[in-house]
Every structure is written in structure tokens, then in C-alpha cells.
């Protein structure tokens, strides 16, 4: 048996990479679906790409709003696992899966009713909204399966198993990557074909997580008491997600009201931002699992030392990604679109995206530390304050004064810098490091 990495003063880098690398693919699953869609649909023209931009933002925000099924489950399961109570840790996943199915059914019903008015509220009447609604109404049928996958990732990360989720997501991504161009271009289904491909892939991935739970031989019955406890932690994470929703929906709306080219360019850069955010967030998954287990085992000093360690990892990783995407500023956008007006708009957002990578590396790593500690209340407040003081005023000023993508991405920069200050101060204080099973 290999030694417990928490018995050392410093968690070995190979242990962090062993947890983070498989989690990277899992974290990137949903943005990868949309990145593939963006590349495939982008060759249909600017209008379908704009429709995908708007529909993709709406669907992604639904998933973002419900990340407590993943992050909250990891926090609870990791502490139980650290305390030597693995069966109870897995049972957290059972209850999260029941919640995922119930919430997913609700999302389908409400989403079908609200898809049209939501798209028109953001983009106004016209062909962009029409395209977005057609895509979104199909994509919503994948919501329960996306949420089941979140729950499965949550409990598996909690018990420090990130390899099985990697295999399950590779199945879904591979199926989607094959079916998307076939449905969109070969079958001639257009924009809606990409949504059908995603739903099929999401069903397959969720089925694999369900089979994994059954193989654990734990109690599969719903437990209202545990579900209520999960919802308690989820409340703070939902409010935190609302801040993200308000920011990115506002940005999409302002871009859509600027021009079709602006919203297409915003879609390309935003999806790359979302993808790289989750690349960086793979460190947060490792941090969440390791910190949660350490605190569950009563090892407060080791949790604090690891927080400092993972901060350095996040900074180095962010600098590296910024340098890579600075070098790719010319050829990479051509993979997503050949529309000259869209390509001319992309640089207005691209260099903000590149410059923010080191900031994002530290912010996401420390988010993982605080989430692993169950410090969701602080993260809720910090994110809401950063959105209210940084992102939202600048995004809507951009609309009022015609600043376009430069104004939108200046708002994102202010949002990230404020979050950086908040999480650094909180981590340094040590008040988050509460030991025991909560």
C-alpha cells in the first residue's frame, strides 16, 4: 500500500497531478461539447453561430447554477472519506443522484416554457433568438443526464477516484464528436443536429455513473434527511452560481445587442475561456479532495500547507496557458469561423482572455481549497460582491456607451481581480480550516 500523502508535510506533486489530470477531462466535458459545436456550426455561417452562442450560454448557465450537485457532494464525501467512512461517502452520491433526477425533470419542464422568452429577452426579436430557441429546446432534454454526471463526479472525487469519471466522459465526448458533424452537415439537420448529438452523449455518460453506484453495494433508497443537508450546502453554491449567471448572461445580451459579428466573436472567446477555466479548475478538484480529506481526518496544519502549495501550482499553470494562447492568437480563431467580420472582432476580447490566465489559475485553485473546506458561505459573498462591484457595472456601461467587447471583457477582468483579492485574504486568515465531519 502506498503511503498516505497527507502523512507528509508536502503533498507530492505526482499525487496532485494524479487527481487533477483525470479530473481535467471530466471538468471540460460540457464546454468541450459546446467547443465542438462551435467549430462545426461555425462553418454554417455567422447566424447559426450567434444562435448557438445565445443558446449555449443559456444551457451552460442552467448547469452552472446546479454545480452544488458536484462541488457540494465532493466536500461532504471527502470529509467522510478522510474520517474513514467510505460507505457513507458513497451514499452521499446516491442522494445527489436522486436530487439530480428530480431537478433535471423540473429543468426540462420549465425550460421548454421559458426558452423562447429568455432568448428574446437577451437578444431581442429576430433570427438570432429563433436559432437559439431551436437549439436550446432540444439540448434541454440532456439536463437530467448532465446533472447525474455532476453527482457522480462529486462522490467519486470525494473518495479520490478520478480515473473512472475520465473513462465515462471520454465515451460521451467521443460519441458527441463523431455524431455532431454527421447530424449537422451530413444528415442536414443544421444547428439542432448538434444538440441531438450532445443529448445522446450525455445519456451514455450518465448511465455509466449509475452503473458505478449500483456496483458499490450501498443503500440506493432516497434519504430525505441527507438530501436536505446537501441542499443546505447547495443554497450558498446556488447563490454563488447566480452571480456567474448574471455576469455571463449580461455579457451575452450586450454582445447580442452590439452586432451579429460581436456575439459570434464573444462566443468563440468565451467558450475558450470556459474551457481553460476548467483546465485550471482541475487543480481545484485535487485541492478539494485533498483538503476535505485532511480536515475530515483532523489534519488542519496539513490542509493549510497544501493551500499555499496549490496556490503556486495555479500561478505557474496560468502563466503557461496564457503564453500558449498568446502564441495561438492568429491560427486558432480560424478553426471556429471563417467569417471575416467575426474574425475582426475577436482580438477585442482575445488579449483580455490571455492576460487573465495567471489570475484565474490562482483564483480557481483557492476556490477548490475553500470548497473542500466547506467554506461555501464565504465564496457566495465574495462572488456576489465581485459581480456587483466589478463585472455588472462595466458590462452595462459598455452597452450604454458603445464600448463593445472591450467593455465586456474589462468587466470580466475587474470581476476576476476582486475575486483574487478576496480568496487570497481568506486563505491567509486560516478561518476556513475547520476540522471534523460537518
From TrEMBL:
Describe its membrane topology: Multi-pass membrane protein
Compartments reported by the entry: Cell membrane
Q: What is its main location?
A: membrane
Which organism is this protein's natural source? Saccharothrix longispora
This one is known as: MATE family efflux protein
Q: Where are the transmembrane segments?
A: 16-36, 48-72, 93-115, 135-156, 168-189, 195-216, 237-260, 272-298, 310-329, 349-371, 378-397, 403-425
Give the keywords, sorted: Cell membrane, Membrane, Transmembrane, Transmembrane helix, Transport
- Spell out the InterPro entries in the cross-references: DinF-like (IPR044644), MATE_fam (IPR002528), MdtK-like (IPR048279)
- Cite the CDD domains for this sequence: MATE_DinF_like
Pfam families per UniProt: MatE
- Say yes or no: keyword Ubl conjugation present: no
Q: Which family does it belong to?
A: Belongs to the multi antimicrobial extrusion (MATE) (TC 2.A.66.1) family.
